[in-house]
Amino acid sequence: MTDVLLNHRTIRKYKNQPVGDDLLNELLQAGIRASTTGNMQLYSIVVTRDPQMKEKLAPAHFNQPVFSNAPVSLTFCADFNRFNKWCRQRKAEPGYDNFQSFVAAAIDALLVAQNVCVAAESKGLGICYLGTVTYNADKIIDILKLPKGVVPVATVTLGWPDENPPQTERLPLEAVVHQETYHDYSPEDIDRLYKEKEELEVNKQFVAENNKETLAQVFTDVRYTKENNEHFSRVFLDVLKNQGFLE
Questions:
Q1: What contacts 192, CB < 8 A, 6 or more positions away?
Q2: Segment holding 183, helix H or strand E
Q3: Which residues form the Nitroreductase domain (predicted)?
Q4: Among 46, 44, 129, 127, which Cα is nearest to 81's?
Q5: Residue 197 in contact with residue 110, Cβ under 8 Å?
Q6: If we measure between CA atoms, which residue out of 56, 50, 73 comes closest to residue 129?
């Protein structure tokens, strides 16, 4: 299993080949064995295979080909709706209309998502996390008919790989692991830890194509801008209010 994890790469092109029901159910079963807050299983998974549903959802994922061309997409949701109903039907009054409860449910859902992804890769399937879910959660809620108490937090596409891309780089272990207490980064640390990343030809090309001076500027000025982050933050906060997790 360690080899599966160490060989992970994102797959965005899939063969026109279905993922069978038995296999998918096996992956989902592996998913729900993930750790969960208080064994409450505060999540739901919506499976999308139907071309018409994919067509409806595609704009919420910025019409990325990886979404439209994947045989299966899975939307993982933080879900207190089911647990709240169980509580009320058993003479217990739930008090989960708050941000702490959303965080617990979101963590539950993301742990399940990663379990499914690792299980899928162990079977030779490819996966891709889509970062668009929290940007357009309001639209996804409408299309998937998610009730109050349910918020989408991740979408994963799944299929048989039709490409074998190189692995994307990662920072060295010393960049992210701290022993006993947090070691803050000096300017020299930052230079050393990001040196390999910045010197990769693919990243140099990325900088040139975007007419920027540094790779960091590509992130701050092009890919993940302050303006966009603030806009989508407002959208998602409204979602949390509408779905009953914030007042």
A1: none
A2: none
A3: 7-160
A4: 44
A5: no
A6: 73
Asked if 134 and 232 count as a contact pair (C-beta separation under 8 A), the reply is yes
Distance CA 119, CA 53 (A): 25
Q: What is the mean pLDDT of the chain?
A: 98
71 near 17, Cβ under 8 Å?
yes
Q: Looking at the predicted structure, is the pLDDT value of residue 1 above 90?
A: no
Q: Please give the model's pTM, rounded to 2 decimal places.
A: 0.96
CA nearest 76: which of 162, 144, 20, 2? 144
Residues sharing a CB contact under 8 Å with residue 243, sequence separation 6 or more, in sequence order: 141, 146, 148, 149, 150, 151
- Detail the DSSP E strand segments found in 15-111: 43-48, 72-79
- Name the pLDDT band for 89 (thresholds 50, 70, 90): very high
- Tokens 């969960």 correspond to what residue? 36
CA distances from 146 to 92, 142, 150, 243 (A): 23, 7, 6, 9
Ordered by where they begin, the domains of the chain are: 2-166 (3.40.109.10)
Tokens of 202: 């693919």
| Rounded Cα distance, 35 and 23, in Å | 22
pLDDT band at 55 (very low <50, low <70, confident <90, very high): very high
Rg (CA), the chain: 20
